[in-house]
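INTERNAL AUDIT FORM
Audit reference: QA-55
Scope: verify that the stored structure record matches its stored sequence.
Auditor: D.O.
Record contents follow.
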Amino acid sequence: MKQKIITCGTWITFMLMISLSCTKKITQGASADAIQITSKASVNPVLKRVSANPLLRIRIYIPEDISEKNYQKISCTLNQSAVNDIDELQVYFTNTEPLFDTTNLIAKINPSQTNFTIPAAIKLHPGLHYIWLSAKLKDAANMNNKIELHCTGLTDADNKTASITEENAGYNKRIGIALRKAGDDAVNTYRIPGITVTDKGTLIAVYDVRYNNAKDLPENIDVGMNRSTDGGQTWQPMKVMMDMGTPQANNGIGDPSILFDPVTKKIWVAALWSKGNHSIAGSIGGLSPDSTGQFMLASSSNDGLTWTAPINITSQVKDPAWKIFFQGPGNGIAMQDGKIVFPAQYWDEKNIPHSTIIYSDDHGATWKRGAGAKSNTTESTVVETTPGTLMLNMRDNRGSFRSIAITKDMGQHWTEDATSYKALPDPVCMGSLLRVKANVKGVMKDVLFFSNPNTS
């Protein structure tokens, strides 16, 4: 009998073939386990009057050795109050696109219990795929409740369920309301919001009513307001409370800021009036409405039911050499000693902007201004950190960060804070700063809450 001789090179090749064959079998056997399914909660409130609010995203990775995977349903859980508050749950398949998009709706249900499945048939090929779950709330949804959705498993055509691993926290979301939406009352755009609360608990929200487009002054803009007496659950119809009359296109007023004076019980709103082209771009200095934008105030003495006609305080607060002087939008404050304060800004004779404040120590009868806190800063927000000490948090046109300054003499002198242009990333945008009493681990403390788009 002839013997077959295997040389060294042939043996190595033979063993390599065995190794590759075994590796292939092992890989095929592990394919089901190699599928990765995770979920990630989006960071946003869930708003009434919005048709689709993203809740979470499911990310599915299919290995390349699986030709196709068919999924049929998604297993989910909701908290009980959400079952009562949600009008509709939606499933959107965005395929390889990771960002939220409502183009491809593949399923929707009206949840009636806390544990449920959503029929959602999708065929997936190797690679990354994304599914978004979204909610539309009932008009009567309780804003004191929260929405908490978890997706626990994906079931395939063979009735095998793969578990979904959660990547982050944040599944428990607050409920809010889209108070004004584009197109409401035939208005193109609503922008520049401010809000305050009176001693009666009434919420007063103010904003730009931009009738024709989203552009800034000198477009056709009025200041609108809405009023709520039940903590924001429901709101009365919009009322235009600052309107400089005809011709509308040449008499815009906007960028409102609002405060409540707890001593007089009066609400104040500050806004910029542009007669003709006299907002930032068109103002040339002086005090006249025909050369510079005007610092206007309106007030209400009956909890926001009616408002005075706008009054002009430009001559009280503006240096005639400056190009323009007007408020910082959002909200002002009442100090512990009774002064009322609005953040403000001026553009000097060299066209350089500076953040500052205006204040009244006689409850709005007369007004005074501070000095500039920092050059090349504009929209700002103010709080009283300790009695008599004001902190100004400023939009900085240099970009990257917010700037922060402190004054102890009503803005006559400012000291830039150690956290300035360092602690708070900012994309050159409006921000908000509030001081409130808050329960911190069972102890009531003074807390500062800051809000802005958290990116440079």
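Auditor finding: record pair retrieved intact. The CA atoms of residues 35 and 163 lie 10 Å apart.
Action required: none
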